[in-house]
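Quick one from the shared queue. A colleague (R.T.) flagged Universal stress protein UspA as missing a structural entry in our internal table.

Convert sequence to structure tokens.
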Amino acid sequence: MPHLIACTDGSYYASGVYEAAAWIANRTHISIKLLHVLDQKQEQPDDVDLSGALHLEASRELFAELAALDTARARLLEVKARALLETAVKYLRGKDARSVATVLKQGTLVDALAELEREPKAQMVVIGKRGDYAAYDHQHLGAKLERVIRACRRPILVANQTFRPIKRVLIAFDGAASSEKVIAYALDQSLLKGLDLHVLSVGAPRSPIDQALAKAADRLQNAGYNVTSVLRQDNAEGDIEQLITDYVRDEQMDMLMLGAYGHARQRHLIVGKTTTSLVRLCNIPLLIFK
């Protein structure tokens, strides 16, 4: 069955992930696969080398005790992880999710997602903006999230801590291949049906991007969407992300959709400077296409 992969670590962002996953699943009629990853390197304290401070017999006894503690810690972490997943399943069923399965992996989140994404029916990934090991500064983008966005091949929704009903969606459109995928998704899938779509581009009137914007808006309108298309001229600083952030705030957008990569001047850092900044600055979910 077609499904999305919802990543959870039980952090403050978990409920936002569950709410977003249930919203997507219910609107697109797909199931949810809940993923939790036991990253032993992250969960365990740093090893302490005591071999030089102990005589041989004491070292053997201590290492045996440490091995037993490691085994007990691993069992405890697995019990905790399964309890977390059970709680998440109950939460999602309370949101009328059609079908929910759980997956518990060991290793890293990036590796686990790489494996699960290869499944032909995996359609999307949902992850919180920050997790247990990220700083609480609202403008800090967790390193784990950066790696996931860079590695994911499927569309990825970055969820906020609090999920609110989505009625107005902004598509940041620059005519690049990844932003064309956003338009294609809107035309092919049911997720956005009945929502108000705003399509925003940055450029000069009668420029190629202006023409591409008009074509994209026409395609969406012909598919039955209520579309508002907006062309904003680039400011002197070339601060595209600020223009988009201001539009999100002023027009009270509920979700932002965009391509991970723009044109040449934006193709740097992890997935493009604009995308990185918007994930960091916007207080709404972002659905990113590559």
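The domain at 168-285 is CATH 3.40.50.620 (Rossmann fold).
Residues 56-93 form the longest helix (38 residues).
Added to the table.
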